Amino acid sequence: MADRLYGLPPGDFTAARAAEAAAAKAAGAAGLAREIGGLRKPTVSAWAVNRASREHASELADLLALGEDLRAAWAAGDADALAELTRRRGEVTGRLARLLRQGLAGAAAAEVDQTLDAAVADAEAAELVRRGRLVKALSYSGFAAPTGGGTLSRTGTRRSAKPSPEQAEQERQAAEERRARELAEAEAQYLEWRDALALAVQELDKRADKAAKLEKKLAKARKLENESRQRVEVARREERLARQRLEKAR
Predict the structure, then answer these.
(1) Hey, is 247 helix, strand or coil?
(2) Exposed/middle/buried for 93, CB within 10 Å: 0-12, 13-18, 19+?
(3) Strand 150-152 relative to strand 158-159, pairing
(4) Alpha-carbon distance 39 to 65, whole Å?
(5) Could you give the percent of the chain with pLDDT greater than 90?
(6) Cα–Cα distance between 81 and 53 in angstroms, integer?
(7) What single string gives the DSSP state of each residue in 7-57?
(8) pLDDT in tens, 132-191
(9) What gap in Å lies between CA 199 and CA 204, rounded to an integer?
(10) Which residues are bridge partners to 150 per DSSP?
């Protein structure tokens, strides 16, 4: 069910999730209904990447296989293999990214690139992309940039070999791409929270207006209640006096 839901466009996700949860609840599976209701709606970029495992399985398999080879070469310190794999990385990633970015805005398109880069660099991210149930973009910065005269590996150990001019250029380009992704991610997060703020303010204004109307009605009801209490007191006093006069007359 989750596979089906995360294959839907974001605009259809909420209604489909509600329908599935309602069906599970009606069937007496309250626990399943809660689990379905807890599934988070994917962002546009996450949905676009989720399409890869469903519509572009061959291209995705090539990308993830390249990522495995690249991580192995990095761990082994194989500079020649790294250079060749890094060259291929741009081709393979670009081919899949072009398929997934069709029709996306700038920020979402950048998040697609960022997520595919994470899938190449990190095995856990690769598995998440393979499953096709992402709810937001992924990022990864485990391969550190040059420090001093050497290069830091993922574990932070220094390799003594000085990078070649080609490697230095590749690392410079990677750093620029990382900064661009970070900027795109920050912009996307800002736009997301800006929109969330606007919705929250709109909801607050609506509920505050409703509360004010209810308070006005309550104040009117309180006033009517007090008037009724006063009439009850007057009637009770007059009833008591009338009863005394009746007893006296008897």
Answers:
(1) helix
(2) buried
(3) antiparallel
(4) 29
(5) 37
(6) 27
(7) TS-HHHHHHHHHHHHHHHHHTT-HHHHHHHHTPPPPPHHHHHHHHHHHH-H
(8) 999 999 987 654 332 223 332 333 333 434 556 666 766 777 777 777 767 766 776 677
(9) 9
(10) 147
DSSP string spanning 112-123?
HHHHHHHHHH-H
Give the separation between CA 43 and CA 104, rounded to whole angstroms: 12
Other Cβ atoms within 10 Å of 84 Cβ, number: 14
For residue 145, the 8-state DSSP code is P
Tokens found for residue 109: 């398109």
Q: Judging by DSSP bridges, how do beta strands 146-147 and 158-159 pair with one another?
A: unpaired
- Identify the three-state secondary structure at position 105: coil
pLDDT greater at residue 90 or residue 183: 90
